[in-house]
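Predict the holo structure. Ligand: L-homoserine.
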Amino acid sequence: MQKLTIGLFGFGFVGQGVYQILNALEDPAISIKKIGVKVPEKRRPAPSELFSFSPEVILEDPDINLIVEATDDPTAALEITHQALKKGIPVVSANKKMIAENLQQIIEWQKEYDVPVLYEGAVCGSIPILRTLETHFLQEPIHSIRGIFNGSTNYILTQIFEEGLDFDTALKEAQEKGFAETDPTLDIGGFDPRYKLTILLAHVFGIVTAPQAISLRGIENLKKEDFAIASEEGKKIKLVAWAAITGDRVVAQVGPQIIASEDPLFNVDQEYNSVVLEGAYSGLQQLTGKGAGSFPTGAAVVADIFSIREGFRYQYRSGSATHELLSTNLLNSRKESLGQNGNIPELDDIEALIEASQETTFK
Ligand code: HSE
């Protein structure tokens, strides 16, 4: 069996989770040789000789044959990924911004250098959604995907609904628990779930597009009245990402929705994420699990490390998109943004919204 000697970049919540899980597993064929970090002065819960402050030292170490990238810096992460692939070293990453914003490039590098990049930890934390799509659902057409893709905002909304906390206190808790991004605007503004939806579009529909092509609204402008109205009606508000085939195109959106009790997302609370798929033949499938946090995300990264060892790589639905993404602002009004029907709008509604908006088609 191939021995994996890892160069780990980043030692925040995710990096530490990976480190601790690998230590606990004690697999003799997997070891971390170096950990790349930026700030030398910080105290860290690992032996100091493991740490390096120069990416080159790690990338040029002849023993290292797998790079695990768990930084919060998409620019550095992309450079590290490129350097590693050029040397024929596979990469496991949890950096959704880096992956989503450079997916075309990352797919091309994988082909050019014939080396895999895996990133299960970048999409919905612990949920094995990419692996599931890339194995079980690789052949089956999928009509729609919908879910809660951000643990922090789900945690915040749950605390507001269940505990009556105010927004700022709930956000602070989400940060303390290691759910939020270093810049929490990425969570609150919905950018983080939009990165995840961008990545999923490639694995569900074969569509590789820029995150900006997806309509977005975050939870920052929700008002007390919105919460009060939803509560009175026995409903909740969730930040929902979805994409669905309508006619010959795919429409995608991230925004808050009012969710009724019969909705499969109603009971997905705290930092949990959930993905609801609609397969052409299998029908509805729902995967739910912790979407953020050191160990849940670390577990997904560790699963990728083992997948690298077994030679697994992504197919991206063989790169053949059968539908184009229709980029359109479906969120023009407050009513639309709150998705009053709490679900993927009916086809007629989508068409009416599309007609009323400026259209741009992205491949
Ligand atoms: N900030 C992200 C979230 C972390 O809250 O979901 C996991 O990607």
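The mean pLDDT is 90. The CA atoms of residues 222 and 256 lie 8 Å apart.
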